[in-house]
Amino acid sequence: MKVITTKGVVKIYNPDKIPVKALNGVDLEISEGEFTAIVGPSGSGKTTLLNIIGGLDRPDEGDVEVGGHDIDAMSDNKLIDFRKEHIGFVFQAYNLIPVLTARENVEFVMLLQNRPKEERHGRAEELLRAVGLEDKMDKRPSELSGGQQQRVAVARALAPKPDFILADEPTANLDSKSTANLLDLMAQLNKEEKVTFIFSTHDQRVIDRARRVVTLVDGKVATDEVRESE
Amino acid sequence: MLFRLAWRNIWRNKRRTAITAASILFAVLFATFMESIQKGAWDHMINSVVNYYYGYVQVHEKGYWDEQTIDKAFPLADSLKQLQEKTPEIRQVLPRIESFALASTGDHTSGVMVVGIDPQVEDAMTNLSGRISEGRYLEDNEEAALVAEGVAENLGLSLGDTIVLISQGYHGVNAAGKYPIKGMVHFGSPELNKQMVYLPLPVAQYFYGATGLVTSLALQLDSQDDIKPVVKVLNSKLDTSTYEVMDWKDLLPDLVEAKTVDSAGNVIVYIILYLIIAFGIFGTILMMSKEREYEFGVLISIGMHRWQLALAVWMEVIMLGLFGALLGILASIPLVWYFHVNPLRFSGDYAAAMEKFGFEAIFPANFEAHIFLTQALLVFVITAILAMYPIFKIRKLKPVQAMRA
Prior knowledge:
heterodimer; A: Rossmann fold; 7 helices; 10 strands; B: alpha+beta; 2 domains; 17 helices; elongated
């Protein structure tokens, strides 16, 4: 079942000064449960596409439908609620809340969703155990390594049980071992939690693990390769 | 959750918190100190002029204050003597007869104000005996004078010398007398210091040819708050076609005007002070907002509503404001207390310039709770208003741009 559809998506930065066409008519369909890598050289529009799919940015032209909703038609507040309920984000720089512990970071979005305390605690512990951080639950981000922080970020993204996880260069700041661990974890969660994962990446190790690889060049889909399931 | 986030963010960057709290602390400290000194100086001035001489309320014969002549002296009737018994807010009634005279000794002459007083009652209100710098205080009916230090200096008089007074008495009577100087009096107010001569009331009445008459009744009250009610009561009890009842503001319009002009001038100084304070606090809020733009972008991205984020940041600044204002009050207390007990005293040209205007160059700090609270509240309100800036920024924030910053 198609859960994300983009049709003729165009995004132009600096339209009034020196216009830069970041996306130049992207047509893409992503189905439920996919484990997709969006690749391409720097400036090809990977991050812009993820931002538009995630409702963080709006296209200048074209249509974007996510989970059956035309997200371009949503108000700013509705988009925030939509992201909170349906989309999990994993950022290149982890972006955990520095003043909260690993457990509180994972609970944060659930707290915004007004989930009951017991549910929040249970889910946060379950996820932190799943990412192998059961002994770091009460540590703040500054007390964790980069790999550990990124695992907390993945747990945070999964906590509200989203339909999709959008990960922008999730392994860019990780060493080989942490990258391998993170990819194992995401693949496992994709399988067990049935969450659709979409990455933007340069990292060959991530590309190798993806079951579908969409290559962007100059803001357009250049190739779209679907691989055999693992 | 928002409170927890705000609270922890305060302690996240201790240096930034310390800078912001310190800027609020110094703002409160500076503003409190300034107002305490300003109010203290005026209270001291009013106190030395009003409480120690004029009294907060005076009763005269109608028209006396506009045309201050001995001819408008009036008999001290029993009903007037009993004012104190009828009006409990009145602590003392001071009968006085006063007029100007020419004082002379040897080759020197000087214009002075000769005031006839009831030595005991006067002392109870004005503590005149406490102002004796040399010699002794007056007895009830003795033929002697107390002379202000400035008068003695002008005339070259010493203790035990005789002062000769010449004036026009009641209804044109020639007034002349000579009195040994029993004591020298020091006044804080240079104006009083240069013109006051005291005689016991019966002696002064005799000198002016006005036996049994007074020109004013100065009233000492329990509290400044009693001024209005006492004036109202007296106006209802006394025959207002014969007597006039005036409070110190009516008696000393120049002083009131000077205070008003000074306060108006200070408003400009306060505005400049608050602007400096506001810019100082705004600088730290601006720094904080800029530093955390990325984080704000992330929080909105993962589903935090702008109002929730704005509220958390606002609470953070408000808590910092409260913390800084509280510290400011605590820091102000010992400083203001010190200058309350040890007033600033100026000397030299500045003191001379102030004396020309009739003021003593002493600035005690006013130690009153409302000054601390008002200034802390004002600085807190400024902080609360400035805390709107991050709210404005968050409202306009575009998460993608913020995270690219």
